[in-house]
Write a structure and sequence with these properties.
The complex is a heterodimer.
Chain A: E1 2-3, H1 7-18, E2 22-23, H2 24-31, H3 35-47, E3 51-63, H4 65-73, H5 76-84, E4 89-90, H6 91-98, H7 102-111, E5 115-118, E6 121-124, H8 134-140, E7 145-146, H9 152-159, E8 165-177, H10 179-182, E9 185-186, H11 209-223, E10 227-228, E11 234-236, H12 237-240, E12 260-265, H13 272-286, H14 292-296, E13 297-300, H15 305-315, E14 320-329, E15 341-350, H16 356-369, E16 375-379, E17 385-395, E18 400-410, H17 412-415, E19 424-430, H18 431-439, H19 446-449, H20 452-457
Parallel strand pairs in A: 1-9, 10-14
Antiparallel strand pairs in A: 2-8, 3-7, 3-8, 4-6, 5-6, 11-13, 12-13, 14-15, 15-19, 16-17, 17-18, 18-19
Helix pairs in contact in A: 5-7, 11-18
Chain B: E1 3-7, H1 8-15, H2 20-26, E2 33-38, E3 41-45, H3 56-66, E4 78-87, E5 97-104, H4 110-125, E6 134-140, E7 148-154, E8 158-159, E9 168-169, H5 170-176, H6 178-183, E10 192-197, E11 203-206, E12 210-211, E13 224-230, H7 233-249, E14 253-260, E15 272-276, H8 278-285, H9 291-300, E16 304-308, E17 311-316, H10 326-337, H11 357-371, E18 375-376, E19 382-383, H12 385-390, E20 412-413, H13 418-426, E21 435-446, E22 450-461, H14 467-482, E23 487-490, E24 496-506, E25 509-517, H15 519-524, E26 531-537
Parallel strand pairs in B: 4-7, 4-14, 18-21
Antiparallel strand pairs in B: 1-3, 2-3, 5-13, 5-14, 6-13, 7-10, 8-9, 10-11, 11-12, 15-17, 16-17, 19-20, 21-22, 22-26, 23-24, 24-25, 25-26
Classes of the chains: A alpha+beta, B alpha+beta.
Amino acid sequence: MSQVFHEIEKKIISSLKENPKQTMEKLEESTSLSSDQIRRGVEWLRLKELANVSESITILFSLGKNGLEAFEKGLPERRLLDLLKDGPKKLQDLQKELGSIFGPAMGLARKNNWIESNNDQLSLKNSSANLPGEITLKTIGKNKLSKIELDESDLSSLLKRPDFIVQDEIKSKEISLTDNAKSIEISDSTGAIDVTAKAPQVYVARTHPLKDTIDEIREIFVTLGFSEILGSMSQPSFWNFDALFTPQDHPARELQDTFYLDGISAKKIGTPDQIKKVSASHKQGWRYLWDIHEARKMVLRTHTTCVTIKHLAETKPDEARVFSVGRVFRNEKVSYKHLVEFNQIEGVVVGKNTTLRDLMGIQKEFYKRIGITKIKFWPTFFPYTEPSLQTMVYNDRLGKWVELFGMGIFRPEVTKPLGIKKPVLAWGGGIERIAMLKYDLDDVREFYNNNLNWLRSATKCQ
Amino acid sequence: MPVVELSYSNLQKLIGKSSKKQISESLPFLGLDVESEEGDLVRVEYSPNRPDYSTDFGIALGMQGLLGVKTGSIKLNIKKSNYVIKVDPTVSKVRPFVTGIIAKNGKVDDKMIKQLMTMQEDLHFGIGRKRKKSSIGIHDLDKISFPLTYTVANRNHSFIPLTSQNTMTITEIIQNTEVGKDYGALLGNSSNVPIILDSKKNTVSFPPIINAAVTTVTHKTMNLFVEVTGINKQDAEDMLAIVATILQSAGFSLYGVKITGANNSSPKLVPRKLIISPNLINDSLGLKLTTSKIITSLKKSRLDAEAKGKNIICTIPAYRFDIFGPMDLVEEVALGYGIQNLEPMMSPSQTIGQTNPVSVKLKLLSLTMVGLGYLEVLNSSLTSKRILYEMTNRKPAKIISVRDSKSQEHTILRDSILPSLVENLSRNIHASYPQKLFETGTIFLQGDPIDEKVSFVGVSAHQDASFTEIKSILQSALKSTFNLEIETATLANPIFEDGRSASVLVNGKSVGIIGEINSQTIENYKIRVPVVGFEINLSGLIFD
């Protein structure tokens, strides 16, 4: 099968087929591509496992200060021998003629037995066409050459001499084809591109995963016949607690559990009739003096039940299915399990089909639609419902039952004072818990960290 | 919710015919959430409306019913006696009511003492409302000489309080002991405090703070005296009913205490009767139970019941004061019948559901923003001065704070979302650019009393981010989603760079702000690219 390659890749491959190991620079020469094109092309081939890139170090030799002088004027010993070509000369004259190189030249000439001395006269004894190092000097000249281009033994004589030879370490990349590449056929169809090549990552813009979960839950309840109602997050204690038969000295109402707005009280909290009857219900049920100032204190709602109960008190329907979804607040220490602010869904059924079994049925259907089938119901306690149940759902990943929605039938102590005559089924629970199951999160804070790496990578369908 | 530690082997002994497995599986159906389990020990959470579940004696009584070992109500057998507490009228202004009971010939070992202490603390915290409403003292009967007097003493009165070796005055107890510091405030500034003295004028108790050391219950104690004081007679007797029921099931014989004077009277601790119709039960639960099945179920919940005509008369022991009316009995029937036996039922809906128009509009706006390449983020409504004002150079208007927040990062309600989005960018300086974020959410302004508005915010951060870019995004978003045209007019705003700051107008009316975030803020957050953004108030613009 032939493979599609970029023009650059094609040139590199064919050059390497001819000359199997080349440096980047050599490739530049042999392909007539720019260094940038070579770099890119080699990188593409490397990613496709078609090229090997090995780094090697080459030593380049060039002439130093003394080497260059010798290249131009001859080696000191050569210059000495040349002066003696025409007959013996006086030591002093030679010293004058040669200056600082006289010493080294004499040393070498004596050692090699090229000269002999007689009193203060020096004369030539032996001479050869090439003295050691002369070939190397000529070969290097003003270039930089590697070892393979030089006579090693001739070079070594110069290496010992000061400032004759300079050595440079050059790191170079050597490119060769892999075995795969050697057998590859290059397609020569024009205009074809490599469709298998990796494409760069782009990030989708998306709605927030928690908002997606809220939308999904909202849609389920709408299709089950429920209408959505909205309400304020800041509420007078009256609707958050008193209307729900939570006595004013109940621990849940304390500062350490509930966010009270500093110094803010509501002037209008309900109709005079509602206030009178709620107050009476508390006096009778809990035996204490109900204080309207306590009911006026503004809190950040601790549940969305205040929205549904207020709606029911205002509309007093004979039959209704409504729900509310939104943020609720608890004065807690933030941890992987707890947030000070999270979302809750809360629903009620008024009128027909308002038995505990219907309530359980709605829950079961809801869980089924979000993909949870292993559920059971346990009794529990809420101040404003009787009987009260909680749903337990099985979390496969954790291997245990976890608590989800709470539910019950509103107590007559709640409904009667507000003029709600029909029984009311109510349920509700946190949405983050469901979203955590959905997105496999162990830390609820992730939803509000706004970490782009997570938001950009969380998969929509879970 | 309060937690109690139980031992399976002990429960088995108390319940009678039962296996560990049966007990373990039935705990949740008694309303007890298993928190942890280790060998023979199990820790369960119980509901605050069932303080009788604060000891394994109480849980055993409930479990006997559920498992069918013993059913019907627990009858208190209180023998007559000559123990008397006289109440002095002076207490009516400080803590008007006292009641009590004698429990004899029980086994008091360390385990029993521990259980009694736990029960006492749970009762104090829950129905006692941190000792304000009612509080208990449990004493060694044999260290006390009756009759007792419930009266007041001034703050120089002294005695040796529990766990101390030295005589202390009331003032010293309130100032120097743990319980004194915790609960002394309940007595206010009154110069007189409640006190129980015995016939030899020895101090027995200083309610609701501390007992005297002399009556300390030890493993040598055989006989107990329990007193409950409070601001309401019924609440005090309710608490006493719990303790009496628990002590009787722990093997003590109960003897009554006569209480006289100042509107006080001897506790009766007698059962109440409540009539309930089987129709209410069946209509509420969705069942068709016969009267006899209902009666059996009530008995399994440790109540008594008998048929009378078409109705059922239910007898409720004094310690079950959590039962207010017929609906509470519906729950008792459900528990006795077994929640696990209730089949969920799906009735077709008679109503047509509808998403709120506000939600619909916000959803459409989100989709438009996503189409424009903006990623949705979510920030808390509760935030900090640092994010809202200090980092962005904004000037605080009327700050709405919450009281006693446990989290420093959540102390005030946001009056704007834009600062949070800039902070979000600062947490992501290592993620790839461009970064384009938006959020729709509630902001809070002072009104009557609080004005909640829906705000729509967007930011764009990258090397070439510009005012023109963000203006074209905003104008496209509002045009495409709501067919609204915007204009911008020069208006300085501290969050924006001077000369690159504008107000956003729709039909000549200001609806928000737009501009380039000021360089000081960018520097404060160590963001390395320019940031542009807008914030629009949607309330009043596209919905009320």
